[in-house]
């Protein structure tokens, strides 16, 4: 059996690895010049840095297992990090004691926030959470004051016009994930690979090549060919390449463009999933903005979602003394900010940064980059388990796995790896049933 995998992100690499281990011939097609997808990196002063901020939670066992398998475990660090919230000022929110000091809301509401985290830990059946919006669930669990004062600004900053459509499953998963990644003193602990996750991608690529996986970089797939309701291969550079199975790991909408012969009902299912885009501004500064790693933005007048100071988790000395900060913004792809240059985007952010960080000046920024991706966050609405597409397309020999399939978990490197494995398990199980 010969398998074509479309997309060389973490899911595509994971699926290629699984298939190759089982002796199946694989060709991996990637439109960019390197593998990794959203986990891709660039160089800052000779050291790799992710284009979009990345870290691990203590529950990310799939990614940890991969790091071990690639011989990189000694570089994996579990670090105490600080999590803060901005609304008129920065409030540190890393520990239960910090929460008690969160004077933006009443003391009673602070207790309710703490109880919300505790109650979330004991919710094991997520199915009822599909039937209620995040807004209604948060109000029910913690009250209107907590929702208005804490969660509504975060949901609206991230999801914009979709905020009221987001299901409780999504926020429950976020609370449970972040609340459980803790040290002995209840401080938040996150994982990072010293020197960057690019080392995982590079080592994994070498492993795939050693397993005789054919990797075709800078090679976009123009079409998935379907004849008589059977996927027969892909078209690359105008040439049809026959394959026995095709696995697509791109966003659902891109699959509909590549495979115009899909059944109408399935096409509607794929295009029914809304996605947010992201533009991530990376700044190299001559100093830190604050002493926090992750700063959530709870001020609806500020256009970005979060400020992540990478070198408050890693040492600036590892990057030639540079202080590195991400400014993340989720938005619709037709928002003018999505296509702004890095310099223009920074200029538009300066007034907000000056409001947030005392003394901030534009000349603190030495260099700036803007990275953008059209499909970064599926909108997880009500009854999503009934709406998300299956791995197995209603076309024989065509399979699909991407971040829209990751549910009830939230997307990220860990589940990209695991869902690459799961789609292969299902594919080969279907083969045994033939």
Biggest β-sheet: strands ordered side by side in the sheet? 7-6-15-16-17-14-18
Number of DSSP helices?
13
Unreliably modeled segments: none
Distance between the termini: 14 Å
- What is the 3D shape? globular
| Biggest beta-sheet profile | 7 strands, mixed
Q: Which band does the percent of strand residues land in?
A: 15-25%
Helix content: 25-40%
Give me the secondary-structure category.
alpha/beta
- As for the CATH topology of the largest domain, it is FAD/NAD(P)-binding domain
Record keyword descriptors for this entry.
Polyamine Oxidase, Chain A, domain 2, 5-stranded parallel sheet, FAD/NAD(P)-binding domain, 434 residues, alpha/beta, 3 domains, 24% strand
Helix-strand blueprint:
Elements: E1 2-6, H1 10-21, E2 25-29, E3 41-44, E4 47-50, H2 61-69, E5 76-80, E6 83-86, E7 90-92, H3 96-100, H4 107-121, H5 134-142, H6 144-159, H7 168-180, E8 189-193, H8 198-210, E9 214-216, E10 223-227, E11 230-236, E12 239-242, E13 245-248, H9 252-258, H10 264-271, E14 275-285, E15 294-297, E16 306-309, E17 323-331, H11 342-356, E18 365-378, H12 384-387, E19 398-400, H13 413-433
Parallel strand pairs: 1-2, 1-13, 2-9, 6-15, 13-19
Antiparallel strand pairs: 3-4, 5-8, 6-7, 10-11, 11-12, 14-17, 14-18, 15-16, 16-17
Helix pairs in contact: 1-8, 1-13, 2-13, 4-7, 5-6, 5-7
What would you say this structure looks like, in words?
This protein has 434 residues and is of the alpha/beta class. It folds into 3 domains: 2-43 and 197-273 and 382-433, FAD/NAD(P)-binding domain; 96-178, no CATH class; 189-194 and 275-378, Protoporphyrinogen oxidase, mitochondrial, domain 2 (Polyamine Oxidase, Chain A, domain 2), CATH 3.90.660. The chain contains 13 helices and 19 strands. The strands form 5 sheets. It has a 7-stranded mixed beta sheet, with helices on both faces. Helix 2 (61-69) packs across helix 13 (413-433).
């Amino acid at each position: 059996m010969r398998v074509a995998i479309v997309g060389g992100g973490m899911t595509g690499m994971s699926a290629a690895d699984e298939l190759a281990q089982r002796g199946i011939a694989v060709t991996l097609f990637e439109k960019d010049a390197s593998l990794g997808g959203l986990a891709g990196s660039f160089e800052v002063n000779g050291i790799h840095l992710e284009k979009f901020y990345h870290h691990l939670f203590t529950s990310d066992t799939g990614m940890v297992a991969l790091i071990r398998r690639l011989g990189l475990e000694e570089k994996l660090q579990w670090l105490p990090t600080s999590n803060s919230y901005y609304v008129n000022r920065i409030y540190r929110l890393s520990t239960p004691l910090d929460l008690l000091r969160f004077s933006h809301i009443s003391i009673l509401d602070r207790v309710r926030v703490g109880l919300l985290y505790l109650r979330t830990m004991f919710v094991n059946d997520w199915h009822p959470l599909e039937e209620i919006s995040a807004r209604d669930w948060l109000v029910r669990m913690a009250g209107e004051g907590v929702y208005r004062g804490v969660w509504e600004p975060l949901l609206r900053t991230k999801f914009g016009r979709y905020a009221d459509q987001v299901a409780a499953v999504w926020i429950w998963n976020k609370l449970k994930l972040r609340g459980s990644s803790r040290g002995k003193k209840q401080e938040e602990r996150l994982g990072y690979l010293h020197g960057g996750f690019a080392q995982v991608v590079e080592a994994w690529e070498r492993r795939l090549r050693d397993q005789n996986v054919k990797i075709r970089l800078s090679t976009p797939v123009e079409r998935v060919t379907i004849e008589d309701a059977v996927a027969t291969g892909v078209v690359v550079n105008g040439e049809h390449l026959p394959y026995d199975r095709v696995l697509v790991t791109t966003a659902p909408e891109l699959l509909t463009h590549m495979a115009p012969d899909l059944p109408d009902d399935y096409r509607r299912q794929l295009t029914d999933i809304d996605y947010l885009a992201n533009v991530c501004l990376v700044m190299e500064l001559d100093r830190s903005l604050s002493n926090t790693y992750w700063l959530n933005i709870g001020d609806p007048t500020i256009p970005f979602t979060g400020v992540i100071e990478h070198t408050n988790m890693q040492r600036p000395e590892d990057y030639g003394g540079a202080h590195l900060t991400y400014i993340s913004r989720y938005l619709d792809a037709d928002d003018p900010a999505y296509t702004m240059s890095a310099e223009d985007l920074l200029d538009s952010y300066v007034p907000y940064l000056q409001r947030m960080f005392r003394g901030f000046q534009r000349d603190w920024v030495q260099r700036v980059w803007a990275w953008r991706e059209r499909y970064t966050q599926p909108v997880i609405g009500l009854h999503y388990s009934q709406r998300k597409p299956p791995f197995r397309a209603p076309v024989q020999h065509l399979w699909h796995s991407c971040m829209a399939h990751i549910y009830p978990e939230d997307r990220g490197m860990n589940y990209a790896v695991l869902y690459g494995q799961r789609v292969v398990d299902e594919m080969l199980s279907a083969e045994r049933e033939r």
